[in-house]
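Quick check before the chapter quiz. The format below is the same one you will see on the exam, so make sure you can read both the input and the output lines.
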Amino acid sequence: MTLVRLWGIRGSLAAPGAETARYGGNTSCVEVRGERGTVLVLDAGTGLRRLGQTLAGRVQRVNLLLTHLHMDHIQGLGFFEPLYDPDVEVHIWGPSSTTLSLKARLNRYLSPPFFPVHLRDVPGLSVHELPREPFAVGEFLVASALVCHPGATVGYRIATHGSVFTYLPDHEPALGARRFPLEPEWTSGYGLARGADLLIHDGQYDNEEYEEHVGWGHSSLEQAIAFAKLAQVKRLAIFHHDPAHDDDQIDRLTSAAVSAARPDFPVVAGAEGDVFELRA
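Here is the expected output.
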């Protein structure tokens, strides 16, 4: 059995009268743990700090897969405890750029004046450009592909023991199309999501908000469900909530989108601490 745990979902506001947000306030970070102990971490948002505290002293290798280098996906990297443990190998994987290597781009963040520690001084760290073909990490087979989002951005398809998990946290497959979804072969991310047992997908906006943000690289909840239908997934977790939405708004918008689309698979609004089990 593979466990997928959400440590950061980009955040929401606390509902009026509540002290904390039920959905959580950290930015993107997801842990994938395999039956044989392989640990994958998807994105390095602020949720990475809390995840790192649970891994300290318990792992010898961590594989961190970055979808892209927007700040909300790398803010937690400098505060990841295993990064500074000389007994732990940390492997960072991410998309290539036409101008700079992944390591050079990460150096821009992990160096003064933005951060006091230089990336070159971190022990046991290896940085890898994503290969074109699927690659093995422990018991997982990892595939990546470019998706619709500003800058070099990828999504991931992670397969193991007869189950498939797809991670598309920042994704705009509709891209302003009047009719969506399009044919599968024309739809960004389809190959990654097809038939997945669990899809985590961007669902930042309602329909009206999306019309004001076409091209920003994010989806409406309705588009996320339509994409999941097209890909024939078995479960959908909505991710990347608009941080301007409070908990009650997320509840209401998700319920309305599900009622309108009537999908034949479960749809939930992802919250920090949620754990999904993937069985063969």
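If your answer matched, good. The mean pLDDT is 94.
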